[in-house]
Amino acid sequence: MKFIDSLPLFSLIVVSLTLGLAPFVPEPHVWTKLKMLVAGDLVRPIDIFDLVLHGTPWVLLAIKLMRGAPRTTIPHEDPRERP
Length: 83
What we know:
60% helix; mainly alpha
């Protein structure tokens, strides 16, 4: 996880919006490949490679955001502190 922590958030956002969505017209490659995956049509090796290539920036960004998100905890109430 040190690798993901060392990646700048801004860089991951830029890479996700460029490589992750390229080509932009007629629709992003990652979206096309996800639709193929859901339909069960993702069988050719080049399509699987495309999904990995265009999906990796999004996965890394999601992991980075989850690791950087503040962890909320339920305040612990000690029964001995009650009046």
